[in-house]
Amino acid sequence: MSEPTIRLEGVGHLERVRCEVRLEPRFDEAAFEAAFARFRRLYNVAPLQALCSADVLFRLEELAASRGERLEPRIRYGGVPLSAEILPPGLLVLEGEVDEDRMGDW
């Protein structure tokens, strides 16, 4: 079953989009940023949310600790909220909405 299309007054149809990225177990911040850049290149918008497997969030905590930082209870990356989901290890799922007219034919 397809996701519903949302219509806001004065705005074209918004289509829900998602991009799944598998990260290596010891990924670095550049690999994480590359996943977000891939979404932006693919859909020409920033993701609205990121769903992460538990090991991805754990790795982000390790990366923050290596800089002497701690992750906040409400984790965000580039303004995008991250949340833990039951997903296969290493999986990052970026979700957003795209105006049908801007998305183009691809």
Description:
With about 110 residues, this protein is of the alpha+beta class. The chain has one domain (about 20-95). About 30% of the residues lie in helices and about 30% in strands. It is built from three helices and six strands, in the order E-E-H-E-H-E-E-E-H. A six-stranded mixed sheet has the order 1-2-6-3-5-4. A hairpin with a 2-residue loop joins strand 4 and strand 5. The longest helix has 15 residues, at about 30-45. It is elongated and about 45 Å long. The mean pLDDT is about 85.
Key descriptive features of the protein:
single chain, 106 residues, alpha+beta, six-stranded mixed beta sheet, 3 helices, 30% helix
Topology:
Layout: E1 6-7, E2 13-22, H1 29-43, E3 49-52, H2 54-66, E4 76-77, E5 80-84, E6 91-99, H3 100-103
Parallel strand pairs: 3-5
Antiparallel strand pairs: 1-2, 2-6, 3-6, 4-5
User: Based on CA inertia axes, which overall geometry fits?
Assistant: elongated
| Main β-sheet, spatial strand arrangement | 1-2-6-3-5-4
Mean pLDDT: 86
- Beta-strand percent range: 25-35%
Termini Cα gap? 21 Å
Percentage of residues assigned to helices: 25-40%
How many β strands by DSSP?
6
Class by SSE composition: alpha+beta
The unreliable regions are none
Tally of contiguous helical segments: 3
What's the alpha carbon Rg, rounded to whole Å?
15 Å
Overall domain count: 1
Helices and strands, in order, run as EEHEHEEEH
- Sheet with the most strands, sense and barrel status: 6 strands, mixed
Briefly characterize the structure.
It is built from 3 helices and 6 strands, in the order ββαβαβββα. By secondary structure, the protein is α+β, with helices and mostly antiparallel strands.
